[in-house]
Specification:
- This protein has 2 domains: about 5-235, Hsp33 domain (3-Layer(bab) Sandwich); about 240-295, HSP33 redox switch-like (CBS domain Like), CATH 3.90.1280.
- It is built from 10 helices and 12 strands.
- It has helices at about 25-35, 35-55, 110, 140-150, 185-200, 200-205, 210-220, 240-250, 255-265, 280-295, and strands at about 5-10, 15-20, 65-70, 75-80, 85-90, 115-120, 130-135, 155-165, 170-180, 225-235, 265-270, 275-280.
- The longest helix has 18 residues, at about 35-55.
- The radius of gyration is 21 Å and the shape is globular.
- The termini are far apart.
């Protein structure tokens, strides 16, 4: 089944919520990057969050990127989502595996901490907005909660989970982002907090056959919930030979001529999907020729 997001409101509009079953997304990422158990969990959580945050964007030209940099052995994670909630990402060190924690859980925090989280919102028009917070746990959900509290001043609860199977594949993945509007009633906040605290992990519920719709109803159903939209989401990289060629052109004639003189060709690797693009000497000279021709006409 494809991954999907439920966008909902409750409490007379005082609660907005995003719930996702991201199993297909994270499984695809694991296959592309051949990630270890630890790296799969870390990347999967970031992709799950980024997809939901992408569904919050207002315009088709907008992108949102979660960029985590840490001193731990994983080094970093990047996850980017668009307006349609399609997402792509990678980890800097996909082979890192940490010993399990005492409770038997994957040690995502130990693979990253200490570090920082950057949330980059690109409207495609002006300079991207960048919000930065120091990682408070390295477990990603708590760090995104901290970002919303400190950078956007929006009370937010974030849950993210990835259940990795014994063969390294992704058995279940999902999560939610719940945000409170300024006019929410105190009684609603207190009851919602109790519901969230009493909720088992998202992945244990999904693994038990409980759907995202049922999980949503358990958490916010009593507040008069309305599911406003169901969005199909997937792992999608929009790289292409044309886009890579454009990127090569952007480095300019001088650098391209240097590549031609020194290497005779160029090979570029896409970190998001693993594709390689090779450009021969003649192809590079053609790009330089077009740049030179354009310069003369302008």
């Amino acid at each position: 089944m494809n991954s999907y997001i439920l966008k909902a409101t409750a409490g007379g509009g005082s609660i907005r919520a995003f719930f996702i079953d991201s199993t297909n997304i994270v499984n695809e990422a694991q296959k592309i990057h051949n990630t270890s158990y630890t790296a799969t969990a870390a990347l999967g959580r970031a992709l799950t969050a980024a997809s939901m945050m992408g569904s919050m964007l207002k315009n088709e030209s907008e992108l949102i990127t979660l960029s985590i940099r840490g001193d731990g052995p994983l080094k970093g994670i990047v996850a980017t989502s668009d307006f349609t909630a399609n997402v792509k990402g990678y980890v800097f060190n996909p082979g890192v595996d940490m010993p399990l924690k005492g409770n038997g859980k994957i040690d995502v925090s130990g693979s990253i901490m200490p570090g920082v989280l950057n949330v980059i919102k690109d409207t495609g028009i002006k300079e991207p907005y960048v919000g930065q917070v120091s990682l408070i746990s390295g477990e990603i959900a708590e760090d995104i909660t901290s970002y919303y509290a400190n950078s956007e001043q929006v009370p937010t609860s974030v849950a993210l989970g990835v259940l990795v199977d014994t063969d390294g594949s992704v058995k279940q993945a999902g999560g939610f982002i719940i945000q409170l509007m300024p006019f929410v009633e105190t009684a609603t906040i207190e009851k919602l907090e109790k519901n969230i605290l009493a909720l088992p992990s998202i992945t244990s519920l999904l693994d038990g056959g409980i759907s995202i719709e049922e999980i949503l109803d358990t958490v916010i159903g009593e507040f008069g919930v309305s599911i406003n939209e169901r969005i199909e989401a997937g792992y999608f990289c929009n790289c292409s030979r044309k886009r890579v060629k454009k990127a090569l052109a952007s480095i300019g004639e001088i650098e391209l001529n240097k590549i031609i003189d020194e290497d005779k060709s160029a090979s570029l690797h896409c970190h998001f999907c693993g594709k390689d693009y090779h450009f021969s000497e003649n192809e590079l000279r053609e790009i330089v020729h077009k740049l030179s021709k354009h310069k003369k006409t302008t």
